[in-house]
Amino acid sequence: MNEAIRNVSPSSVPQASAALNSPARVLLASLVGTTIEFFDFYVYATAAVLVFPTLFFPNSDATTALLASFATFSIAFFARPMGAVVFGHFGDRIGRKTTLVAALLTMGISTVVIGLLPTYEKIGVFAPLLLALCRFGQGFGLGGEWGGAVLLATENAPEGKRSWYGMFPQLGAPVGLFLSSGLFWILLHFISKDALLSWGWRVPFLASTVLIVIGLWVRFSITETPAFQKAIDAHERVAVPVVELFRSHKRSIFLGTFVALATFVLFYIGSAYLLSYNIKVLGMPFVEALEVQILGSVVFGIFIPLIGKLGDRFGRREMLIGTTVLIGLFSFLLPSLMTGGAVGIFLFSGLSMALMGMTYGLIGTALAAPFPTSVRYTGSSITFNLAGIFGASLAPYIATWLFSNYGIDYVGYYMGLAALITLVCILASGKDEV
């Protein structure tokens, strides 16, 4: 028996492993993981608007408290590149599967701890500090999760179906948004606003435990991707992926960061900022504001698989160019829609999330495309998360500040500028770089 084991060739191992990774299992594992990660992320985003200004920043006026809450929201985006470097290193060195499990646990534990935190009333200034620390943990975990989930899908994709496979982890974003908004919506139908502020806000964070268990079960059921196994067999792994990345792939990092800029700005204006605007500016009841967000998440989810098919058929780069032009044109409609009453708000949510599905469904595959297998986990993760800093981390804060100081027109200008920068970077990228 020992002789038989010694005689197993290395090449036979990846073939057996690859056979275990059925398409359904791969796509479910990539979708479930990102659903959990984005559920955790959006639970925080929703709470940052609905309850955190009151519970963690009670000694400020309403606008200042909201800005402080959005500032803690932004911390995660600065933590994400750090997570991308750490998890990317191990993802490119020891494998996608093990690293994805570690990233999921990091994000999940941070989320559950937020649900157990004492508020400002109990421990004073330590409450927002602990909140910020947990938010850092969320971002650190997500920094390693997203890139691995995208590679799990795309590195198992058959020829000609990379955009289709790559859109499955992206579906986790609208599903997570739907579940998080829906859970808050259910809570507000069964408990009062006072109860929500007292204890109800903790439920979505603690409910994340159930999703984490499901995610871990699915992740443990998969094997390593064929592309990474081939890199192991060919001895293509590099000692320090991040060093190799910045030595040989600086152009891809720079262009990829700004190729994703409009995606992030569009999403966080159409979700976190819109939720805040509806409640704080328009005086919309919490339940109705969440219904707008739930509708947006459904539209978001519909357009992701649609663009996945179109990307494979007509070209990913061409679809991204067309979508970015549409985002730029949409920015001119933003002021009239957001001041157009309930109809305008629903139209704004639906249109912004349709465009979001069209850009987000392709962005994962696009950001992974220019990097070789040996640094692909690190490269795609860092690029995505740098884009998060420039495009998402401060988007709700900037939009709130622009509206407060200059009016809603300037929020539209902000989105239009992001679309212009993204368009220039897509055009500057070669066909193999997006």
From TrEMBL:
Pfam family of the protein (one):
MFS_1
Which one of the record's GO molecular function terms can you name?
transmembrane transporter activity
Q: Where is the Major facilitator superfamily (MFS) profile domain?
A: 26-434
- Cellular localisation: Cell inner membrane
Give me the Gene Ontology terms describing cellular component: plasma membrane
| Keyword field contains Transmembrane helix | yes
Q: Which Gene3D superfamilies match?
A: MFS general substrate transporter like domains
Q: Which UniProt keywords are present, listed alphabetically?
A: Cell inner membrane, Cell membrane, Membrane, Transmembrane, Transmembrane helix, Transport
InterPro entries according to UniProt: MFS (IPR011701), MFS_dom (IPR020846), MFS_sugar_transport-like (IPR005828), MFS_trans_sf (IPR036259), MHS_symport (IPR004736)
Residue intervals passing through the bilayer: 65-88, 100-120, 164-187, 199-220, 253-274, 286-307, 319-338, 344-370, 382-404, 410-430
Record membrane topology: Multi-pass membrane protein
Name of the protein in question: MHS family MFS transporter
